[in-house]
Specification:
Blueprint lengths: L2 H9 L6 E6 L2 H15 L5 E5 L5 H9 L8 E7 L5 H13 L3 E7 L6 H4 L4 H5 L3 E6 L4 H14 L6 H10 L4 H12 L7 H7 L8 H10 L4 H9 L4 H24 L5 H5 L5 H13 L2 H20 L5 H16 L1
Parallel strand pairs: 1-4, 1-5, 2-3, 3-4
Length: 330
């Protein structure tokens, strides 16, 4: 199941004995795991098991037993490696056997959790017993709405332009953005772009926006590409960022050719910083329409290679592929 379907179930106050959250967005996984846990009980009654603390027998026993100090038995299990499907199935059954127990898997990192997800069958979902939700990276407009809602809920005074600045500084990583908003909230002042620059630091020394622009423009990107990957940027994440950037350029180009002056609010759903938008619009309009299809075909084929076959050296392979991309289309 995906986020939108699950949100509809939440609005209907549907509950389950076991939940599993996984996917590309770490923020979404952790946010929903916490949201569901708190819907059943208060913080002090929620037990958390972190990564290497995972022990199948201990967790199963906890789910089968009633809590001595609370009316609900809520267990969040955070894992960064897949758990055997048979064990997951037994833990789901244990949570179903005890009406006060709720099991929540928060699966983080780049491991393949699809085998775990198979334990959450359609029948369990239909009977409101156990459910598995997969998250994808939110669109920029959705991510900025999340940040805006967080700011409003926590009475943080920040305008849209400054929020966009923080978001792109952290190359669209919601976890880092939320952490910085928490930090900035103690200043008890209006948060401007200048305040952000004075107190926050981007998670990479390379500007993602500049890198993507240079890649599409055919400029030399070898050094920046190397440093991005050396600084820990995930290969699949970087590839999806390139694809998303090309898709945005295509939407800008199509809008300009059919309607007129590109309106960022209508095209992207939000307004980026002025200089970023002007630079992106100029690049988009200068690319011939037929070239967009070729670019997207190349990127989707590359993504398929990463996700369906075992690329022995993903770092080196991506570097070579993006250099080829830049040479072909820049």
């Amino acid at each position: 199941m995906y986020k939108k379907e699950f949100d509809n179930l939440l609005k209907q106050n549907k509950t389950f004995s076991a939940y599993m959250f996984y996917g590309q967005s770490t923020y979404m996984v952790e946010h929903y795991a916490s949201l569901i846990a708190k819907s059943f009980s208060c913080d002090e009654d929620i037990e958390k098991v972190y990564f290497d603390e995972y022990n199948f027998r201990d967790i199963k026993n906890k789910l089968l037993q009633n809590s001595l100090f609370a009316s609900n038995n809520i267990l969040i299990v955070k894992v960064d490696k897949k758990i055997d499907k048979k064990e997951v199935k037994e833990l789901i059954e244990a949570s179903m056997q005890n009406p006060i127990s709720t099991l929540i898997f928060a699966c983080l990192g780049d491991s393949d959790f699809k085998n775990m997800a198979l334990a959450f069958t359609k029948k369990l979902e239909k009977d409101f017993e156990a459910i598995c939700i997969r998250f994808f990276l939110p669109f920029d407009s959705e991510a900025l709405k999340i940040l805006g809602d967080y700011s409003n809920t926590n009475n943080i005074s920040i305008d849209n332009s400054s929020l966009n600045h923080l978001y792109f500084m952290h190359k669209q990583d919601l976890n880092f953005c939320i952490n910085d908003l928490r930090k900035l909230s103690i200043l008890n002042e209006s948060i401007s772009t200048k305040v952000i620059d004075n107190h926050c630091f981007g998670i990479t020394t390379i500007s993602m926006e500049d890198f993507l622009h240079n890649l599409i423009s055919g400029k030399h990107i070898g050094k920046d590409l190397y440093y991005l990957l050396e600084e820990g940027v995930n290969e699949i994440f970087l590839l999806t960022q390139v694809t998303s950037f090309v898709q945005q350029l295509f939407m800008i180009s199509a809008y300009a050719r059919t309607i007129g002056n590109p309106d960022p609010k209508e095209i992207l759903g939000f307004t980026p910083p002025k200089l970023i938008w002007e630079k992106k619009s100029k690049l988009a309009i200068n690319i011939k329409p037929e070239k967009y299809l070729e670019m997207l075909d190349f990127l989707l084929e590359l993504e398929l290679e990463f996700k369906t076959s075992k690329v022995k050296e993903p770092n080196l392979y991506l570097q070579a592929s993006l250099r080829k991309f830049s040479a072909l289309f820049g």
